[in-house]
Amino acid sequence: MSVPFGGQVRDPQEWMREQERRGAELLAKAEEAKTELANNIVTLSSRDRLVTVRVIRAGD
Known about the structure:
Layout: H1 12-38, E1 41-45, E2 52-56
Antiparallel strand pairs: 1-2
């Protein structure tokens, strides 16, 4: 039997578990990046609130 892209026939359940694991890893990395970014943003506004500046601090 020919398999597209040169792969091997895999158990669909095994493939699904692998995709779920990869998805969970990506979600964890995204959450970590979101938290890190939130900790590196400073927002200041003028007293009359006509001007607001948001500064994102670059990594060290």
